[in-house]
């Protein structure tokens, strides 16, 4: 057999062709379904069984368990799914990924779809130039589907015919009669191949083609399929190394689930394969041990049956698995306090999901900023210089945190702006940019208050009792406004009502106006020192400006500010 470098490159290129087609189709489907995926998942994952069904349907649709796992982790990060729900979806995804084997076995090897690929592309290609995002995404789905089968056809033709090469077959045969050791060797080969190729679906296609060409026997191919189940989880865990705690937990749960399945299957391996052989002999009068042509269907049956049994066996232990991975991957220190918790660059797969993650991060940002009001209140009440100095340092730290968080959220959203967002998604994105900016400005205002109070520290006299009480009362109104703001940030953006926020902002303004009148009257009567009066005047005006920004946040949530800007641009 003459198989040179050019042939090897052709084989690798064919594999890349296949994977690229799958990637284009998968991403196109995600874009088409992305806008409604949140609502579907929230409805269909009410319990572990419906979650497993959702995972099966989702993976069958996007044809990638890795894509499903990444999306699920994204939903966990965004607070749309709990870890328990996510594990259920991942279990279902393992069953859904078996659809790939059936498509390749039935269509890819028996039906010449590749012959119709170019006409299919001719139909889908014009859609790629549509000005409408959804139509353009459908074009990607159609073109990706055609490219996938063209890649599969190229892969089939580039695989060398080694039936006439007994040396190679003898090499493989030397590792096939070692019992459980043989199984372990080819499980390892399947695992490594999946990690290298970065797609269990692509590895399954390679395994089926190798078996169909007579390279490997049925039991060896089945061993590689088990390895592919492990390999796809290792890929997810490698990706999660640089992700947050929730991503690590979901990836680890996937690994535990698949490792358990491979373990019990290896114990029952000969019995299980024997049962499939008996079934195919009776039903199709064709044994996968005797005919290479029967192996693809036999592998599809094996892959599907194995994953269904594994899911049924473990679905009752979802909560236990969740508790185990939670203990194995705890939140370290202040990770959930001063670091981005919900968003990660590696999880930006579907724009709709990414927007939801950003919304959750912005909501957390709002809670962090609102704490600064309490610090200022304590700072105003504290008369001892040492205690005030510690609080001043803490406020400065929080101001630096708000600066950093605002920049990181803005950076994340700027990367999203290039994705295929619809008009509603673009409006939400602009609203979140506005909200983040207002939250950062509030941090600046609280810091300015602390500087004014620090300046007051240097004078001998402290604020008058009525001044302290008035400032505290005004800050209490701000706290109530923060409570409304944070409640709005936690809601679905379309469900936010501005009436309560508007009423509270007016109350803050009215209180500020009343303070100003009383302050000017007292100043005329000489009741305050000039420096004290100036600092007091700065403080209540700064507090009122915080109230303005709090209202801006609620308006940003509803998209009012973004719509106004859009109208002005128009």
Write a brief caption for the model:
The protein has 570 residues and is mostly helical. It has 23 helices and no strands.
List the helices and strands and how they pair.
Elements: H1 5-44, H2 48-62, H3 65-77, H4 83-96, H5 99-108, H6 117-124, H7 133-158, H8 166-173, H9 180-197, H10 200-212, H11 218-240, H12 245-267, H13 269-284, H14 295-314, H15 318-328, H16 335-338, H17 351-381, H18 385-416, H19 423-457, H20 465-490, H21 499-524, H22 530-558, H23 560-569
Helix pairs in contact: 1-2, 1-7, 2-4, 3-4, 3-11, 3-12, 3-17, 4-12, 4-14, 4-15, 5-10, 5-14, 6-7, 9-11, 10-11, 11-12, 11-14, 12-14, 12-15, 17-18, 17-19, 17-20, 18-19, 19-22, 19-23, 20-21, 20-22, 21-22
How far is the first residue's CA from the last residue's CA? Answer: 69 Å
Largest sheet: none
Helix residue percentage: over 70%
Q: Structural class, please?
A: mainly alpha
Provide the succession of SSEs. Answer: HHHHHHHHHHHHHHHHHHHHHHH
**Which percent band covers the strand fraction?**
under 5%
Name the poorly predicted regions.
162-170, 333-337, 565-570
What's the number of helices? 23
User: For the residues shown, what is the average pLDDT?
Assistant: 78
How many extended strands? 0
């Amino acid at each position: 057999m003459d198989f040179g470098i050019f042939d090897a490159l052709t084989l690798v290129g064919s594999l890349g062709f296949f994977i690229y087609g799958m990637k284009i189709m998968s991403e196109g489907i995600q874009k088409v379904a992305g806008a409604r995926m949140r609502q579907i998942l929230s409805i269909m994952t009410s319990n572990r069984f419906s979650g497993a069904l959702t995972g099966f349907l989702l993976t069958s649709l996007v044809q990638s368990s890795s894509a499903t796992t990444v999306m699920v982790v994204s939903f966990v990060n965004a607070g749309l799914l709990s870890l328990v729900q996510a594990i259920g979806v991942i279990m279902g995804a393992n069953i859904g990924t078996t659809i790939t084997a059936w498509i390749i076995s039935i269509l890819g090897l028996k039906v010449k779809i590749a012959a119709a690929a170019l006409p299919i592309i001719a139909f889908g290609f014009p859609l790629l130039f549509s000005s409408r995002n959804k139509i353009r995404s459908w074009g990607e789905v159609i073109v990706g589907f055609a490219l996938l089968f063209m890649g599969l056809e190229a892969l089939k033709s580039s695989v060398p015919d080694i039936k006439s090469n007994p040396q190679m077959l003898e090499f493989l045969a030397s590792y096939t009669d070692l019992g459980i050791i043989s199984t372990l060797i080819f499980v390892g080969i399947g695992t490594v191949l999946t990690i290298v190729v970065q797609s269990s679906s692509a590895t399954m296609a390679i395994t089926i083609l190798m078996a169909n060409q007579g390279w490997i026997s049925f039991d060896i191919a089945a061993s590689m399929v088990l390895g592919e189940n492990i390999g796809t989880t290792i890929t997810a865990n490698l990706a999660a190394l640089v992700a947050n705690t929730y991503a690590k937990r979901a990836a680890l749960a996937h690994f535990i689930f698949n490792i358990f399945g491979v373990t019990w299957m290896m114990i029952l391996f000969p019995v299980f394969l024997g049962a499939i052989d008996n079934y195919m002999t009776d039903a199709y009068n064709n044994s996968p041990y005797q005919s290479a042509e029967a192996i693809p269907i036999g592998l599809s049956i094996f892959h599907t049956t194995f994953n269904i049994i594994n899911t049924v066996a473990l679905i009752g232990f979802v909560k236990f698995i969740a508790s185990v991975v939670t203990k194995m991957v705890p939140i370290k220190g202040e990770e959930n306090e001063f670091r981005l918790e919900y968003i990660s660059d590696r999880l930006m797969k579907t724009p709709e999901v990414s927007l939801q993650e950003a919304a959750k991060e912005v909501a957390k940002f709002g809670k962090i900023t609102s704490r600064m009001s309490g610090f200022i209140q304590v700072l105003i009440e504290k008369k001892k210089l040492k205690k005030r100095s510690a609080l001043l340092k803490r406020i400065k730290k929080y101001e630096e945190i708000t600066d950093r968080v605002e920049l990181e959220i803005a950076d994340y959203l700027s990367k999203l702006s290039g994705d295929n967002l619809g008009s509603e998604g673009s409006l939400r994105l602009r609203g979140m940019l506005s909200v983040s900016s207002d939250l950062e400005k509030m941090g600046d205002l609280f810091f300015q208050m602390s500087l004014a109070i620090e300046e007051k520290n240097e004078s001998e006299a402290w604020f008058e009792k009525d001044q302290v009480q008035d400032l505290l009362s005004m800050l209490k109104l701000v706290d109530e406004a923060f409570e409304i703001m944070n409640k709005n940030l936690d809601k679905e953006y379309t469900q936010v009502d501005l009436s309560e926020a508007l009423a509270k902002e007016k109350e803050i303004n009215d209180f500020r106006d009343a303070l100003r009148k009383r302050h000017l009257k007292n100043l005329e009567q000489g009741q305050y020192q000039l420096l004290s009066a100036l600092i007091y005047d700065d403080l209540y005006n700064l507090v009122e400006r915080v109230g303005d920004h709090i209202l801006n946040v609620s308006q940003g949530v509803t998209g009012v500010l973004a719509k106004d800007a859009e109208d002005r641009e128009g």
